[in-house]
Design a protein that fits this description.
Layout (H helix, E strand, L loop, with lengths): L6 E7 L6 E9 L11 E3 L12 H5 L7 H4 L1
Antiparallel strand pairs: 1-2, 2-3
Length: 71
């Protein structure tokens, strides 16, 4: 059970260290949440870049703006 209703999820884990880094929505039991099925959530604080640096620190400079800015 999540805030948005009942969902069936599976863990996503790192094959390198075995840590759980997120989850994937397998099924949504509420019709209004069906759009989530097959989508996944990755927790940035648990990810590292290819060089071993913290993903959040290296990528934060590239994140910004919105779709409305492009219109």
């Amino acid at each position: 059970m999540m805030i948005t209703g009942l969902h069936t999820v599976v863990d996503i884990f790192c094959i390198g260290c075995g840590s759980i880094v997120g989850w994937k929505y397998e099924a949504a039991h509420d019709k209004t949440q069906k759009y989530k099925e097959g989508k996944f959530i990755l927790e940035r604080v648990k990810l590292t870049g290819p060089d071993g640096s913290n993903y959040l620190e290296t990528q934060e400079a590239q994140v910004g703006g919105s779709d409305l800015d492009d219109a």
